[in-house]
Amino acid sequence: MKEPSNPENVSQYGSRLGGDSPPRPSEAVIEAVAAVEEIQPWDLEPPLYDTLDPDALDSLLTGVSARSRLEFDYHGYTVVIEDGGTVVIE
Q1: Residue 36 maps to a domain
Q2: pLDDT in tens, 21-48
Q3: Residue 34 domain boundaries
Q4: Closest residue by Cα to residue 45 from 88, 90, 2
């Protein structure tokens, strides 16, 4: 795993999918990783679609009400989407 540009952000960063107009899960992942890296989302290399299908991620997690947890590696981090839509970058 690579060394994050701001290690303090890694353990502290979390994002929730919710509110009046929640982002799609794939957008929340991109925004979370970009925030930890302190770069713009469009500057992430490789793009999320090179790691997994963003539409499949959105379909899998949209409307999920049961207890769930999804974990995958992206951009050198472990991305965890937990019950209730919390996105955690580790």
Answers
A1: yes
A2: 667 889 889 999 999 999 999 999 999 9
A3: 7-89
A4: 2
